Amino acid sequence: MSKTTVERQNLIEAVNALPDEVLTELASFVDYLRYKTVQQQRTESPQQNFLLAIAGLGKSGQPDTSDHDEEILRNEIDSIHGWSSKPGDEP
Question: Which SS3 state, helix, strand or coil, does residue 41 take?
Fold first, then answer.
């Protein structure tokens, strides 16, 4: 048997030895461990994707837009609805 199998078997035996009154608490702790594992996996993956997403920034070939920022904003912002082009999308 592998070490993991032995450890799992020891855990199963330990759970079987617990009184019924504490099984609800144990189930809550196991749910927490599952949640924590999923959250760690989610936070690790986007970091790698984030780096890939920003890899090409600054290489668009466009001239420096900071000189034209007011003109760009004037064209992007609706004079009545602000950033949204639809009345229902207002923040």
Answer: helix
Name the one residue in this structure whose structure tokens are 């229902």.
Answer: 88
The per-residue pLDDT of the chain, averaged, comes to 76
pTM of the model: 0.41
Distance (Å) of CA 27 to CA 11, 30, 31 = 13, 5, 6
Question: What span, in angstroms and rounded, lies between the C-alpha atoms of 90 and 10?
Answer: 58
Contacts of 89 (CB under 8 A, 6+ apart): 81
Question: What single-letter DSSP state applies at residue 10?
Answer: H
Which residues lie across from 82 on neighbouring strands?
Answer: 78
